[in-house]
Design goal:
Arc Repressor Mutant, subunit A, single chain, 255 residues, globular, 8% strand, Glutaredoxin, alpha+beta
Length: 255
């Protein structure tokens, strides 16, 4: 494809296709160290453009959002267009087009969580924080999001802080959680590590471990009921090295 056949209007915030990235804020903390880490991420993949998703998480860990400079840096490292990067960054809801808070709070309102009070929790959080969903408090401390299913229905209603689970929430527990986050008090996930910050969590998603992966429980009682029953009944899983082999079907017969 020759160069004149594809035009990118990424740099023009008024043009269609700019991707809704906030071009009014051109600030960035991306430096040569960040670029080197982007190249390090890209080197993990046989096709380097596969590194785009973790690279965007790295951008958020540095700039607190998907910044115009972050878009450009990803495109340069991966040898793709800024329009291609912007298309991915604006497709997935985990990538923020405006600055997220020091702590990013999500409230699940899908299916069972909704039935168990998720909408009530979200309304409570909006009133307590004085912001709506997809907004950040003026002090930059907390941002709020309505989340789709977190695959934790046995712990509904579920909230998340910096992508860590907060299970079996009630309005009172949610109020206490927000107060602690506002005051920078120690908070632990119900099934995970101590809460750090959203930017630090984004760096982990970029592929740079923080050493907390094994901290805290990884499963709760509701998830372990089946295992407990199996232990009580003496049930075991089949030996994968000694599985029965189905006989071949006789000729002319369907299996």
């Amino acid at each position: 494809m020759s160069g004149h056949e594809f035009q990118s209007h990424f740099d023009d915030p008024a043009a269609p296709g700019a991707g809704d990235i906030d071009h009014s804020d051109m600030s960035t903390n991306i430096d040569e160290t960040t670029i080197a880490e982007m190249r390090q991420i890209a080197a993990r993949y046989p096709q380097k453009r596969s590194a785009l998703l973790p690279m965007l998480h790295l951008v958020q860990s540095v700039d607190g959002r998907i910044s115009p400079r972050g878009i450009e840096a990803c495109a340069q490292v991966l040898d793709i267009t800024t329009a291609q990067v912007s298309g991915v960054a604006t497709f997935y809801t985990m990538y923020k087009r405006r600055p997220a808070g020091k702590h990013h709070v999500g409230v699940c309102t899908t299916a069972l969580c909704a039935v168990m009070g998720g909408d009530i929790l979200l309304d409570r959080m909006e009133k307590k924080l004085g912001i709506g969903e997809n907004q950040t408090t003026p002090d930059g401390q907390i941002s709020l999001e309505r989340l789709e299913c977190n695959a934790a229905c046995d712990f509904a209603p579920v909230m998340m802080v910096n992508w860590e689970f907060m299970d079996n929430m009630t309005p009172e527990k949610a109020d206490e959680l927000i107060d602690k986050l506002r005051n920078d008090e120690e908070v632990h996930s119900t099934r995970g590590a101590q809460i750090t910050s959203w930017r630090e969590a984004e760096r982990v998603l970029a592929g740079f471990p923080d050493g907390l992966a094994d901290e805290g429980p990884t499963a709760g009682p509701a998830s372990l009921v089946g295992l407990e029953i199996a232990h009580n009944e003496g049930w075991t899983a089949p030996d994968p090295n000694n599985l029965p082999v189905n006989p071949a079907p006789e000729e002319g017969k369907q299996q």
